[in-house]
Amino acid sequence: MTADEEFRPHRIVVLALDGLLPFELGIPHRIFGRPRDAAGRPLYEVVTCSVRPPGPVETDADFAVHVAHGPEALETADTVIVPASYELGPLYDEGRLTDELAAALARVRPGTRLASICTGVYVLAAAGLLDGRPATTHWADAERFQRLFPKIDVDADVLFVDDGDVLTSAGVAAGIDLCLHIVRRDHGTAVANDVARRTVVPPHRDGGQAQYIERPVPDLQLATTTAARAWALGRLHEPIQLRDMAAQESMSVRTFTRRFREEVGVSPGQWLTAQRVERARHLLESTELSVDQVARDAGFGTAQSMRQHLQQALGVTPTAYRRTFRTGSVR
User: What pLDDT digit, counting tens, does each position of 156-184 carry?
Assistant: First the structure.
């Protein structure tokens, strides 16, 4: 068997339900349709299916989409993604699957990775796939979702939750963050960053970042923290004090900290740690630098400090993370 015959792209099946949001339906196709391996072969194959035989699926807009695959496509999935829908019926009202949807989900093979965007999480919840597990959805719907599914640990303050084989995200743009996170998890930061550049979106927003930012678009009459962030990114390998970042904007530490959280959704310290984790990931994946040198270049100072932060953020040690990208994909 040749290498080309052995190669098989990861198959993602997107489940399109009536009332779906066209924007969210397009996210998986846009993000997963881009990644290629060194030989130029697509790393993912994206297929859209319905719970019914091939045909039209209504959207929340003034048009329908024609879906070429029925529920049998779910049997072939390595990952199933459920985008949001505004016509969930008994799912939304009672937390109950329709017979049609239950029959479709029964086709999903055990061990298949599952993900949802926004209210697509209702499908996973009603199927009992989230009981006893953490999950998120759009912040405006989280309280109701928690009441309907009390066995789920709902976190309304994050962009997405990665619980291994089941991932959930907040609304709309957070679906992009989730899909990029999956690409990064599967194939590393270089591949994910390339997809982000081609899609013209930020390469990484940490899943723990707040959904609702008090002032997402800063008042043009007020100073922002953009220059301080750019300054910090250029010297992650150096010690960076909060007062130094505040000085870049000619603000007091107190004002800068408040403004930073309003604009970014996390504290300066949390943001800085996340950037250093991303820098460490990139170096571990793409260089042969020692763990000690990676720790210094990423600004952690010592290998022990970096190990603690990577363990907390990724659940693995630096050595284990590097080994993963030398031997195969992260799962």
Answer: 888 899 999 999 999 878 899 999 999 99
Q: How many other C-beta atoms lie within 10 A of the C-beta of residue 119?
A: 24
> Residue 130 carries which DSSP code?
S
Rg (CA), the chain: 21
Cβ 317 vs Cβ 307: under 8 Å:
yes
Q: What pTM, to 2 d.p., does this model score? A: 0.74
Longest dimension (CA), the chain: 65
Spatial CA neighbour of 90 closest among 114, 62, 126, 60: 126
**217-259: per-residue pLDDT in tens?**
444 445 589 899 999 999 999 999 999 999 999 999 999 999 9
Distance CA 292, CA 290 (A): 5
Three-state DSSP class for 244? Answer: helix
Q: Is residue 277 classed exposed, middle or buried when 0-12, 13-18 and 19+ CB atoms within 10 A define those classes?
A: buried
